[in-house]
C-alpha cells in the first residue's frame, strides 16, 4: 500500500492492514483491486478467501482458499494499478507512460501539469516520479470523472502529492497561478493546439511539453503551433511486442543435426544396421512472439520551451 505521511514521504508498507488496497493476482491477465475488510470474503473460481486471513501478511504473500486454491496479494504499484483501474476513458499503458516520464525529464521534486486526468493511469505514475517533494496538478473538464479520479488517489495513498481540479483547459487555459512554475506539461486533449500557448506560459525556462494524440492530423496541427514558442519538436509512436516463453518437447537428434527448434519431434530413427531406435523427446525452452500484439495507441509529441536569452 502506498503510504503518504505529512512529510510527503512515499513508501510501501510491507504488511497488509485492515482497510488497505491490495491487488489480487490470479494470473497475469486476471487481477483485481480489493479493499481489505476484516469481515469480508473474496469468492472466485478457486474458492472462498477470508480477508481476515490476509491481515498481517506481507505484500507478495500466497494465500489459500477453503478449497485449497490460491492467489497472490500484491502491492498496488502504479504499473499494476494501470492494469486494474476502471476505464472511464482510454488510458495510457506502461510502454507509453515510461517513455513520457523519461522524455519529460520528470524527477523527484518536479512540478507537473496534466490535462486531462481521464482514468488517472498516467497521473498515478507521474505522482510516484515526482515524490517525495514534487506535485502533480491534473485538470479535467468532466466533474464526475475528476471526482472518481480523486477517490482513486485517496485509495492508493497519493492524495497528498496530486491535486485534481475541474477545468476546461482547451477553452480556459491553465490557471495563471502556475505561470513559470511547471517543469513539465502533459496534454491529452482532442485539440491540444488550443492549450499549447497557455502551456508555454506555465513552463520554466527549458521546460518540456508532451502531447498525446491518436491521429496524425492532430499531431500535424499541434506541431505547427509548437514552432512559435518551442524547439526540439519530435513525435514518437511506441509499439510493444510481447514474447511467449514456454517449455516444449523437441527431438534431440533432429535439433542437433539441423539446428531447428520448431520442428515436430520424430518418433523413431533408423540406425546404420537398418534397425529402428526410438527417440525420446527432451524438454526445451521456446520463445516466440505472441499471436496477438497491441498495435497503435497514439502519437507522443515532445517539445522544449525556447530560451528567451
UniProtKB/TrEMBL annotation:
- Highest taxon listed in the record's lineage: Eukaryota
The molecule here is called Uncharacterized protein
Q: Which organism is it from?
A: Bauhinia variegata (Purple orchid tree)
The uppermost taxa in this organism's lineage are: Eukaryota, Viridiplantae, Streptophyta, Embryophyta, Tracheophyta
Amino acid at each position: 500500500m502506498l503510504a503518504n505521511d505529512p512529510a510527503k514521504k512515499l513508501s510501501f508498507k510491507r504488511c497488509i492492514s485492515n482497510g488497505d488496497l491490495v491487488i489480487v493476482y490470479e494470473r497475469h491477465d486476471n487481477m483485481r483491486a480489493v479493499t481489505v475488510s476484516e469481515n469480508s470474503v473474496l469468492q472466485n473460481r478457486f474458492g472462498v478467501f477470508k480477508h481476515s486471513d490476509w491481515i498481517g501478511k506481507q505484500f507478495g504473500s500466497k494465500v489459500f482458499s477453503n478449497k485449497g486454491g490460491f492467489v497472490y496479494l500484491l502491492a498496488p504499484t502504479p504499473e499494476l494499478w494501470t492494469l486494474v483501474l476502471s476505464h472511464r476513458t482510454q488510458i495510457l499503458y506502461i510502454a507509453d507512460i515510461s517513455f513520457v516520464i523519461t522524455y519529460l525529464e520528470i524527477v523527484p521534486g518536479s512540478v507537473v501539469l496534466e490535462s486531462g486526468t481521464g482514468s488517472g493511469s498516467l497521473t498515478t505514475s507521474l505522482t510516484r516520479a515526482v515524490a517525495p517533494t514534487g506535485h502533480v496538478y491534473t485538470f479535467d473538464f468532466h466533474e464526475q470523472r475528476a471526482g472518481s479520479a480523486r477517490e482513486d488517489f485517496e485509495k492508493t495513498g497519493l492524495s497528498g502529492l496530486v491535486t485534481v481540479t475541474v477545468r476546461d483547459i482547451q477553452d480556459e487555459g491553465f490557471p495563471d497561478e502556475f505561470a513559470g512554475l511547471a517543469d513539465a506539461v502533459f496534454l491529452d486533449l482532442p485539440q491540444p493546439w488550443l492549450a499549447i500557448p497557455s502551456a508555454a506560459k506555465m513552463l520554466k525556462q527549458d521546460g518540456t511539453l508532451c502531447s498525446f494524440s491518436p491521429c496524425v492530423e492532430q499531431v500535424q496541427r499541434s506541431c505547427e503551433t509548437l514552432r512559435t514558442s518551442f524547439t526540439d519538436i519530435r513525435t514518437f509512436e511506441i509499439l510493444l511486442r510481447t514474447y511467449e516463453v514456454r517449455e516444449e518437447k523437441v527431438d534431440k537428434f533432429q535439433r542437433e543435426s539441423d539446428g531447428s527448434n520448431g520442428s515436430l519431434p520424430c518418433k523413431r530413427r533408423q540406425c546404420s544396421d537398418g534397425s529402428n531406435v526410438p527417440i525420446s523427446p527432451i524438454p526445451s525452452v521456446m520463445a516466440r512472439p505472441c499471436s496477438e500484439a497491441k498495435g497503435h495507441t497514439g502519437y507522443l509529441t515532445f517539445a522544449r520551451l525556447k530560451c528567451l536569452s
